[in-house]
Description:
This protein is of the alpha/beta class. The protein is built from 6 helices and 7 strands. It has helices spanning 16-31, 52-56, 60-75, 92-101, 143-152, 170-182, and strands at residues 2-7, 36-41, 78-84, 108-111, 114-117, 123-129, 157-163. The chain has a 5-stranded parallel sheet with strand order 2-1-3-6-7, sandwiched between helices. Strands 4-5 form a two-stranded antiparallel ribbon.
Amino acid sequence: xxxxxxxxxxxxxxxxxxxxxxxxxxxxxxxxxxxxxxxxxxxxxxxxxxxxxxxxxxxxxxxxxxxxxxxxxxxxxxxxxxxxxxxxxxxxxxxxxxxxxxxxxxxxxxxxxxxxxxxxxxxxxxxxxxxxxxxxxxxxxxxxxxxxxxxxxxxxxxxxxxxxxxxxxxxxxxxxxxxxxxxxxxxxxxxxx
Length: 193
């Protein structure tokens, strides 16, 4: 089984989403023999944002990295994403990574009946951190966006583990992290694609 681990926080060791995503991955390492883990830190190794030159493919290094990003995603059975909420949505580095996954003929296609996802059969676990309380509120553009984009790719097995209100107080942060760690999604067999 292959697991792709992505982190998007810019906070390094102070990142709650990194702490949660690492805990999810460690749980999988402990419980799934032979697990292959591929890791990408989008702060240390960002994916180039899409530009007109991206489509012209004038930068060989950008083309190669985009191909690698897509290949790693398509090969993964499980994708664990450390996603802090920045300005009510996802980090721009995570959006840039997602933009490299949205490739017609690879992760989706259009038909006369509309779009069809081509990357189903994966499990996506999002480890989310938020300074405020946003779940179910109109200020949450993170969860709905991530659910929609992965559904567009044909992935409906998307779970969230989150610590919210971590900026309210040190105690609230500690409690939110403890609650999130206690609620980590368990490894399980994936349905056949």
